[in-house]
Amino acid sequence: MAVTPLSLTGRALRLLSGREHSRAELERKLTRFEEEPGALAAVLDKLQAKDFINEGRVVESVLHRRAAKLGTQRIKQELQAKGLEPEAVADAVERLRASEVERAREVWRKKFGSSPVDAAERGKQMRFLASRGFGGDAIHKVVSGGDED
């Protein structure tokens, strides 16, 4: 029995069944399979019209999966890399900033759990939080204050 190649729609639906994708992500991933010009755009238009591609759900999915582990800057970069509208990214960043210190404190607590004993340990903790994308203000509040608000 011969294996038939997947259609563009089939490939797009397979990708969407795993997680939410933005239109730009799908274009990037499926362009190499497009056999005639405009076919991919037509498929993506149809999927968007049926609400299979939804930027709002993409943003919510990323926030849900990543907010507990990453800071605002890293999540902002991830959203921008997905090719989302700047307004949607800005709204998500605004929501994340409100909980930045609490999220940083929770990540810090899981990794370290105790205040630094010396400058080297303090630097290590601060670099760790910075690598996760947390802002300087949040890092200073968490590392210097430990569990205090």
UniProtKB/TrEMBL annotation:
Residues 100-143 form the RecX third three-helical domain. One of its GO terms (cellular component) is cytoplasm. InterPro entries: RecX_HTH_1st, RecX_HTH_2nd, RecX_HTH_3rd, Regulatory_RecX, WH-like_DNA-bd_sf. Keywords: Cytoplasm. The keyword Aminoacyl-tRNA synthetase does not apply. Residues 54-92 form the RecX second three-helical domain. One of its GO terms (biological process) is regulation of DNA repair. Belongs to the RecX family. PANTHER family: REGULATORY PROTEIN RECX FAMILY PROTEIN (PTHR33602). This is Regulatory protein RecX.
